[in-house]
């Protein structure tokens, strides 16, 4: 019998298969069905920094507009702190999920500056989140910021969220586009993060050639997106002393097995579950168990990192030189056997 349980962020999960941040847990009923199908934990949809900041600014504007009409208004208008703004619905939903589910519930924040909004981490921790996932989603549109400036700000943000979370573990969700990913990951660990989630899947706008507008649809992933994650997992596993999570392109138990072999302690699923519902989770769990069993692994923990950079017989398979070899060995289709 294969033991799927895993240790992650100081939590004991019964399975490495985790429901990733998305609308999949928008209702308690749906989250319960995913838990019943075998999920090890669930991650809630993100609250965005901008949501918090915009709502605070909006309230200030509202109060200030009254202050302008009456000199005494400041005394009779409510104190800004007592008005339920910002993440109240998320906090209530989090509490409802915590009460209903017997698996860890991870809250998600999406932000990239170390401002006052990071107090949200404290509120989510106090509302009972078992862990927090901080998504450092930042497509490269700042025209003058250098990579060093962007990374320094993101590291400060991680430190601010970790401090606000006061003991509740924070895992950082990264994008694939850091030139020095391993050094950056080390700095994220030094800032107090308890784990890394690889990778953010940038929403990839297309161009509508009829309207000449940007097509804003989210296209679900396919397994073709997994190898980018596998490479990063294999390189970071053992190099950064943090549990790693794969997100992006896991659709089968074999995909999950590859992510675990490359070093993932947990594997998140979103597109597969949006496509096929909780049944996909049960299927992926069965396929993963069967693969581990067939290959004589007694637990997913035993398989974790077995093909990582430091474990494989030929580490150059993961390295730059391998690219040159592959290019050299390429044969036109006609001559391929
Ligand atoms: C509809 C939808 C909503 C999502 N919402 C969030 C979110 O709120 N926060 C977040 O960090 N990621 C969000 N994601 C990204 C997923 O958590 C995940 O990282 C990504 O979809 C890649 O995993 P997959 O290949 O299993 O879909 C969302 C993805 C989808 C498709």
From TrEMBL:
Keywords: Flavoprotein, FMN, Oxidoreductase, Pyrimidine biosynthesis. GO terms for biological process: 'de novo' pyrimidine nucleobase biosynthetic process; 'de novo' UMP biosynthetic process. Gene3D superfamilies: Aldolase class I. GO terms for molecular function: dihydroorotate dehydrogenase activity; dihydropyrimidine dehydrogenase (NAD+) activity. Pfam families: DHO_dh. Its cofactor is FMN. One of its GO terms (cellular component) is cytoplasm. PANTHER family: DIHYDROOROTATE DEHYDROGENASE (QUINONE), MITOCHONDRIAL-RELATED, SLL0744 PROTEIN. NCBIfam families: PRK07565.1 (NF005741). This is NAD-dependent dihydropyrimidine dehydrogenase subunit PreA. It comes from Mycobacterium innocens.
């Amino acid at each position: 019998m294969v033991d799927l349980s895993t240790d992650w962020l100081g939590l004991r999960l019964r399975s490495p298969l985790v429901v990733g941040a998305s609308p999949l847990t928008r209702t308690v009923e749906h989250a319960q069905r995913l838990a019943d199908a075998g999920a090890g934990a669930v991650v809630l949809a993100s609250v965005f920094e901008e949501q918090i900041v915009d709502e605070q600014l909006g309230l200030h504007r509202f109060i200030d507009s009254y202050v302008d009409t009456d000199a005494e208004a400041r005394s009779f208008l409510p104190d800004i702190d007592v008005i339920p703004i910002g993440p109240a619905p998320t906090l209530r939903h989090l509490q409802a999920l915590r009460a209903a589910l017997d698996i860890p519930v991870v809250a998600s924040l999406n932000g990239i500056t170390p401002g006052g909004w990071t107090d949200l981490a404290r509120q989510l921790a106090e509302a009972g989140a078992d862990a927090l996932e901080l998504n450092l989603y930042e497509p490269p549109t700042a025209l003058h910021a250098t990579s060093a400036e962007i990374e320094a700000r993101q590291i400060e943000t991680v430190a601010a969220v970790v401090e606000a979370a006061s003991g509740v573990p924070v895992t950082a969700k990264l994008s694939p586009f850091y030139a020095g990913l391993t050094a950056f990951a080390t700095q994220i660990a030094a800032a107090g993060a308890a784990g890394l989630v690889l990778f953010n899947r940038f929403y990839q706008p297309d161009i509508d050639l009829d309207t000449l507008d940007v097509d804003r649809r989210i296209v679900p992933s396919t397994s073709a997106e997994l190898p980018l994650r596998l490479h990063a997992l294999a390189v970071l596993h053992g190099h950064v002393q943090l549990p790693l999570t794969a997100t992006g392109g896991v659709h089968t138990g074999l995909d999950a097995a590859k992510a675990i072999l490359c070093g993932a302690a947990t594997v998140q699923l979103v597109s597969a579950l949006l496509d096929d519902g909780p049944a996909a989770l049960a299927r992926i769990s069965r396929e993963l168990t069967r693969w581990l069993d067939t290959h004589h692994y007694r637990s997913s923990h035993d398989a974790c990192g077995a093909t990582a950079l430091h474990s494989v017989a030929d580490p150059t398979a993961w390295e730059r030189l391998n690219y040159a070899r592959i290019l050299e060995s390429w044969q036109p289709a006609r001559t391929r056997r």
